[in-house]
Design brief:
223 residues; alpha/beta; seven-stranded mixed sheet; two-stranded antiparallel ribbon; globular; binds S-adenosylmethionine; SAM-dependent_MTases_sf; Methyltransf_16
């Protein structure tokens, strides 16, 4: 898998560099850094310095006063990267067994981030945990989270429950399972308007053929 073989990955974001520590031998996939997380962060990092009208994504980068949650954060790459780009009110979530890897990465990067980012246990099928986060959020972030067919329904429901009617889901995506892929896009098509970022708009050093960035907005609430 691209980018992820080394136990430590250095990711430049803006004027900072995140250091990502992973345990590729663990039985939990969240203790490795998955390349779609790098793709999503570097897509926004590429466009962040450009003002409108040259920047077609300036609306996505208007992070001031916005609330965000990341689903299946793993080592926390996407959440930490977007935090450095200005999305400062963000909570990173994952299942309990992944929390040690997340906390380790938050600690390692505390100096770069300037603080310990908010994090919480969230299983996508746990309505009480979803409610406890106090939705709606302006941004729901997720990267490389579609790989188990059985959990796809809960994932899409969690996205729908968490994102505001005028909010945005930012998704870094690669096909990991044909069954999960099919089910995910069927369900998303019922709930969201889906925009795919053209490949030439991704960061040239981090883009690769199999991966994409998608922008979802709730149907009937497209802005
Ligand atoms: C392939 S990893 C991606 C991790 C990270 N987003 C990245 O791109 O590096 C998938 C993540 O989704 C989380 N996940 C899987 N099923 C979940 C569920 N039902 N509820 C919450 N998180 C889940 C896993 O624990 C894991 O951290």
């Amino acid at each position: 898998m691209k980018f992820t073989e080394s136990p430590v990955i250095e990711l430049p974001v803006g004027t900072s560099v995140l250091s990502l520590q992973q345990d590729n031998g663990s039985m939990h996939v969240g203790t490795s850094v998955w390349p779609c997380s790098l793709l999503l962060v570097k897509f926004l990092d590429r466009w962040a310095p450009l003002p409108p009208p040259e920047n077609p994504y300036s609306h996505l980068l208007a992070f001031r006063s916005k609330r965000a949650v990341e689903l299946g954060t793993g080592c926390g790459v996407a959440g930490m990267g977007l935090y450095l780009l200005g999305l400062t009110d963000i909570i990173l979530t994952d299942i309990s067994p992944v929390m040690p890897a997340l906390k380790r990465n938050l600690k390692v990067n505390k100096r770069v981030l300037g603080k310990n980012l908010k994090h919480s246990v969230l299983y996508w099928n746990n309505i009480d945990q979803i409610r406890a986060l106090n939705p709606p959020f302006d941004f729901v972030i997720a990267t490389d989270v579609v790989y188990i067919e059985e959990s796809v329904g809960a994932l899409v429901s969690a996205m729908e429950a968490l994102v505001a009617d005028d909010g945005v889901v930012l998704l870094g995506y690669q096909v990991r399972s044909p069954e999960a892929h099919k089910r995910f896009w069927e369900l998303c098509g019922e709930v969201f308007e889906i925009e795919k970022v053209p490949h030439e708009h991704l960061h040239p050093e981090y883009a690769y053929e199999e991966a994409d960035v998608f922008i979802f907005k709730k149907k009937n609430n497209k802005q």
